[in-house]
């Protein structure tokens, strides 16, 4: 569901214009939303850095030991930035949910278009079946390679190994990456925090590559990121 971001109405800040949902979801539309998401993330980082420069965070008390407002800080500026960050974070969550849903719609539409038609002549059905088979082969083609896995990370707990080749990440397959780029990966990960995701992969065992399926749960842990692993794109 599309929404009007709270952060769009604050004076003195960037006005984010969320486009209305079109009748038909397109890759171009989703890329517009991803660009807005990226801009929100950059603004949040910049605001956090600005607060850090004056020695405060989101929860740092703004009063001294005696309970009086700190005279060494611009309290109005800090409160304004904290409020802006809170609004942006809420909008960011809503926007990521929208992007996740729209990417899923695109993926399902792509799969539906690849299905053979039951009303076409036999020759057309045969051709369509061949196309579907080719599409399935493409979906199984690896598009990410696990480069590193951090100890005690969600990736390690799920059973990911360095060298694993990802053929499906959640609902994403190679065609989705070709159409949308790697930017959609963090969007999908962030939209599935604490939710189980199926990951299909190929793993070398001896001289052969074996198909495997694991359950990966993106989550906050003691290290960086939500997965604790690094991917390399397979072209």
TrEMBL record:
Domain Nas2 N-terminal: 30-108
InterPro entries to which the protein is assigned, alphabetical: Nas2_N, PDZ_sf, PSMD9
UniProt keyword annotations, A-Z: Chaperone
Lineage: superkingdom: Eukaryota
A family per Pfam: Nas2_N
Biological process per Gene Ontology, one example term: proteasome regulatory particle assembly
Region of interest (Disordered), residue spans: 110-140
Bias (Polar residues): 112-132
Signal peptide: none
GO CC annotation terms, alphabetical: cytoplasm; nucleus
PANTHER family: 26S PROTEASOME NON-ATPASE REGULATORY SUBUNIT 9 (PTHR12651)
Protein name: Nas2 N-terminal domain-containing protein
Source organism of the structure: Naegleria fowleri (Brain eating amoeba)
């Amino acid at each position: 569901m599309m929404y009007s971001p709270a952060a769009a109405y604050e004076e003195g800040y960037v006005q984010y214009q969320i486009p209305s949902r079109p009748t038909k979801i397109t890759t171009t539309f989703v890329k517009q939303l991803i660009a807005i998401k990226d801009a929100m993330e950059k603004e949040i980082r910049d605001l956090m850095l600005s607060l850090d420069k004056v020695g405060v965070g989101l929860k740092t008390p703004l009063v001294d030991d005696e309970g009086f407002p700190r005279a060494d800080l611009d309290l109005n500026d800090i409160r304004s930035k904290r409020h802006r960050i809170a609004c942006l974070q809420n909008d960011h969550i809503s926007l990521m949910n929208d992007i996740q849903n729209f990417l899923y719609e695109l993926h399902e539409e792509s799969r539906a278009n690849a299905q053979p038609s039951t009303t076409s002549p036999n020759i057309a059905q045969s051709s369509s079946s061949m196309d579907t088979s080719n599409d399935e082969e493409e979906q199984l083609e690896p598009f990410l390679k696990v480069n590193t896995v951090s100890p005690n990370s969600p990736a390690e707990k799920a059973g990911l190994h360095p060298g694993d080749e990802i053929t499906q990440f959640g609902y994403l397959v190679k065609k989705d990456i070709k159409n949308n780029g790697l930017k959609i990966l963090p969007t999908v990960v962030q939209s599935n925090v604490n939710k189980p995701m199926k990951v299909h992969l190929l793993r070398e065992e001896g001289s052969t590559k074996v198909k495997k399926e694991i359950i990966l749960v993106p989550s906050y842990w003691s290290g960086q990121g939500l997965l604790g692993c690094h991917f390399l794109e397979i072209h």
